[in-house]
Specification:
12-stranded mixed beta sheet, about 15% helix
Length: about 210
């Protein structure tokens, strides 16, 4: 199994104002297609998980999945770090969200392209040096992009400063894999700030996991 591929998928796919900011929970259905020799679609779906719970409040978010490899990903704007908890390690592996992972080649926005959860969504197509990312979003579920201005990794800020909304669907195409995440349930609710607390686990840089 390609360990570097699995780690990259974990970070990317779990690694985007008008009126009231959206605070609450989104449930996504995820599907993966492998473009990597030796890694099947079934393996990738089992490892990464097909159901994702994404909770956001202000500049913090936490994404949990039902896969066998990655348990959850936590972003805290205070440190501008992404923390990953993997099933096979009793530690949190952090990465610096200010590090750019890939260069943007072009961005194109089209209005009213798809209906998701009964809401008409615009589409943003981002092409980079490593692939393409297609986001569907609606201003009905806004977020404040300035809270993520240091979140350069995954070009998240480049998305949110244009969309100013949470994504309801994401299609990722890279040389290694393709993934589709579609919101199947969305709930606005008050989230306690303690939900984003860092658990009492050893903290290690993500580079140690890749070794």
């Amino acid at each position: 199994m390609n360990r570097s591929l699995i780690i990259a998928v974990c970070i990317l796919t779990t690694s985007t104002l008008i009126g009231q900011e959206f605070e609450g929970k989104i449930i996504y259905k995820n599907t993966y297609e492998s473009n990597t020799k030796g890694v099947s679609d079934n393996q990738l779906n089992s490892l990464m998980g097909t159901i994702q719970e994404y909770v956001i409040k202000g500049g913090n978010y936490k994404s949990s999945v039902n896969g066998s490899f990655n348990q959850y990903q936590l972003y805290r704007s205070e440190e501008n770090r992404i923390y990953n908890k993997f099933s096979n390690a009793e530690a949190l592996f952090w990465s610096d969200a200010s590090i750019e992972g890939e260069k943007i080649l072009s961005i194109d926005v089209k209005e009213d392209q798809e209906t998701i959860l009964g809401v008409s969504c615009d589409k943003l197509i981002m092409k980079t040096t490593k692939g393409s990312y297609i986001y569907f979003y609606s201003s009905k579920y806004p977020i404040n992009p300035t809270l993520f201005r240091e979140h350069i990794f995954g070009n998240w800020y480049e998305f949110v400063k244009r969309a100013k909304s949470v994504p309801l669907k994401i299609i990722m195409n890279t040389l290694e894999f393709k993934s589709i995440s579609v919101a199947i349930k969305l709930e606005s609710l008050e989230v306690d700030s303690s939900f984003f607390d860092i658990p009492e686990l050893p903290l290690k840089p993500i580079s140690e996991l890749r070794n």
